[in-house]
Write a structure and sequence with these properties.
Layout (H helix, E strand, L loop, with lengths): L6 E6 H5 L4 E3 L10 H16 L17 E11 L2 E6 L1 H20 L3 H11 E4 L2 E4 L7 H6 L16 H16 L2 H4 L3 H11 E8 L2 H12 L7 H11 L5 H18 L3 H13 L14 H6 L3 H7 L9 H26 L6 H8 L6 H7 L6 H24 L6 H15 L5 H14 L17 H18 L6 H4 L6 E5 L5 H8 L2 H8 L5 E5 H7 L4 H8 L4 H4 L10 H9 L14 H18 L2 H5 L11 H4 L9 H6 L8 E6 L2 E7 L5 E3 L4 E2 L2 H9 L6 H4 L1 E4 L2 E4 H10 L4
Parallel strand pairs: 2-4, 3-7
Antiparallel strand pairs: 1-7, 3-4, 5-6, 8-9, 10-11, 10-14, 11-12, 12-13, 14-15
Helix pairs in contact: 3-4, 3-6, 10-14, 11-15, 12-15, 12-17, 15-16, 16-18, 17-18, 17-19, 18-20, 21-29, 23-24
Amino acid sequence: MLENLIQSRAMTIEEVFTGRRYQLDTYQRDFTWSRTDVGRLVADLRKKFVSNWQLEHDREHVARYQSYFLGPYVYHEEAPVTYLVDGQQRITTLHLMLIYLRELLRAQELDGEADRLAGLIQTRRFGQAVHTLDIPERQQFLNEVFKDNGDAYSLPQNATGALRRLWDASRVFQEEFPEDLRGDALPYFVDWLLDGVCMVGIRAATSEQGWEIYESMNDRGVRLGPIDLLKSFLLSQIDNDPGGADVIWRRMVSELAGVDVNAPSDFLKTYLIGRFANVGASEETDELSPDVERINGPFHAWVKENAQNMGLCRSSDYRKLIDDLADNARRYCTLAAVVSGYDSELSSIYFNSYNGMSIQAAPILAAVEQRDDSAVFKEKAKLVASYLDLVFARRLVNDLPCSGVHLDREAVRLVGLLRGGVSVSRLREILAREVSALDYDFTGMDAYGLRSNNSRQVRYVLARLTGFVETACERGDDMRSYLDSRRSFEIEHVWANHFDRYQPETGTRAEFDSYRNRLGALLLLRKSDNASYQDLPYEEKVEYYQRQNHLAGALHSNHRERNSSFNKFAKAQKLDRLLRPFPKFDKKAIRARQDLYQRLCEIIWDPSAAFGSLVRPVQRQDRSRTRTRARYDVAVTDLIAKGALPARARLVGRRRGEEFRAEVLHDGRIRVGSGETFGSLSAAGEFVLQTKSCPGWNFWRTRIGDLEVPLVEVRREALEKGLV
C-alpha cells in the first residue's frame, strides 16, 4: 500500500532537471503563458537575487543567499519518462531560461559553467541528445532559438498556438532579460538559480492517480483568489442592500473579463495604486514603493490592512467604493481594449503596452474626475500615455534604463502628481513641466543603433518612423502589422553582412559593424521581401526599396517622380535636405540618414504639439548626481567623485588578442572607440565584443600610475579604504 501513497519532497532547480526526460500526459494542456507571465517570473527571480548579491562577494557567498520557493509541480513516472501532471508552465519557462543562460555563459567564455547547464537542458537517449522537456514539436525550435543566429529562426506557417507562445516567451529572454544579470552577476545568478531556487515535487504513483490530482487541483471546488476575497470583504461591510452591490460587482468583473481574462485582477491593482497607494519611493532605488509591491501581490490583504487610510469607515463608504470601482472599470475596459486591439485615437496606450508597461492606467485613473465624460477621459488618457511614450523613446536612444520596470516606476511617480483628478488644461501644464525637467532629448542619438539585446526597441523606433511617414503620405495606418509579434515585418540592414565590400571605407570589422547597425542604416520591410534580397549589394537592393514604404523608397532617385503626397509631406516638414536619395550608400549616407531619423523622432515625439507652448527646452543636468541607482551601492561616477578613478578615464579591454578602447564620460556613461555611448560597463563590453553578455567591471581596465588595473579592483580598493 505504501507505494500507492503520494510522495513529495523539496527539490532545487538543478534536481528538477537532473536525469529527467519530461513529457506531457494526454490530458495536460500545452504551454499557455504569455510574455507578461514569463516577464513576471524573471522579475521575481531578479528581485530576490539582487537583494542578496554584491559584486565583492566570492562565489561561496551564494550558498548563504536567501532561497526562493517557486511552487509545487506534480508528476508520475513510467521509466524512462517522467510525465508532468501540473506545473509545466513554470518548468517550460525555466527550461527556456537555462538554454538562454547557457548562451550567456558561453559569451563570457565560462565554458565549464555552460557545460553544467547543458547537462540539465538535455539528456542522452540511445546515444542521441534529447531535450529534458522531450516534446517533439519543440525540438527544432529549442535547438536554434538562442544561438547566435537565433533571430533567423522562423516559425512554421502552420505553427501551433503553443509553439507561438513558446516563441513569444523566448523573446522575453532575448529582449527583456535584465542587464544587471547579464553582466558580472551572471555566474552568481546561475549558482543561486540552480541551488537556491526550489520547487516541491509531488509524485503520483500512477497515471490514474496523477489524473485525480490534476482534476482536484484544477477542476474541483472553487479556489478563492484575491478578487473573490476582496469582494467577500467589501460586501461583508455593507449593511444595506449587499445584494445590489453584489450584482454591480459581478457585472463589473464580467465586463472586464470579456476584454481580457486578466483584466479584472489588473484593473483592481491599477485602481488601488492610482487612488490609494503610497507611491513614494526612494530616489536611490529602482524598486516600486512597498504599497505598490504589495498591491501587485495579494491586494485583498492590503485593502483589509489599509481600509481606514482609504476612508472606509462606514457601510456607506464601502458601497461608494464599489460604485466608484464600477465607474472606473468601464474606463479601464476602454484602455484594455486598445491594448488588445490597436486604436489610432489612443495609439500611445498600445505602444506603451508593447514596450512592457503594465501600470500606465494608474496615472490615467488618478487624473480622472468623477464628472469626466468619455471624451474628456480619452483626452486625459491620450496625454498621460503620450508623455510616458515620449519618456520611453528619449530614454531608449540615450541608452538609459527603459525596461517595463523603469516605465512602471515613472507611471507610479505620475500618480502622486495627478491623484485627486485634474482638468485637461492643468494636466497639460503638469506634463509640460515634467518634460521640461527631463535632461535628455534626441540630440544624443547620433550613434544609436541595433545591439545584441535591443532588437525589439529598435524595431519599435523604426515602426514609429515608418508608420508616421506612411500615414502622413496618406497610405494608411499599419502600425499593428509593423509591431506584430509574429514578425511579418523585419529589420533590414542596408549594408549586407559582407565586410569585404566595405573594408576600404571602414578599415576594421568593428567599425563596419558599428556603421552597419546604426539606425540610419536600417529599414523596416516585409519579412518575405527582406529575405529575398537582404544579401544583395545596395545598388541592386535600392531598386527593390523603391516599391516598399516611403522611408525605404526615398533612397531611390526616382521616388519623387509623380509622388505628390510624398513631396508635399517632405516640404511641409522641411525634410527636403534629409529625405533624399543616395546612389551610393556609404558612411556619409548613413550619417545623413541618422540625422533624418533623429529629426523624425523630434517631430513624432514633439512635446509642444502634445502639451502646448509651456514646454521649455531640455535643461541639461549632471546625471552623475541625479541618476537613479539600480540597487548597487557603487557606480563609476562615485569612483571619479572620490578620486579613485580619474575624470575622463581611459579604458581598455582585451579578448583573444584583440584590444578595445573606451572612455568614461563626465556623467558616468561609457563611450567606445566608434562613438557609441552606453549606460553601463557591461553594455559597452557587449557592444565591442559583439556578444550577448560581458562582465563589465572585470573586462575593462584602466591605468593607475604605471599599472593597468581591472575596474573591479579599483572599486574593491575604494570600498576597503572607505571612499565609497
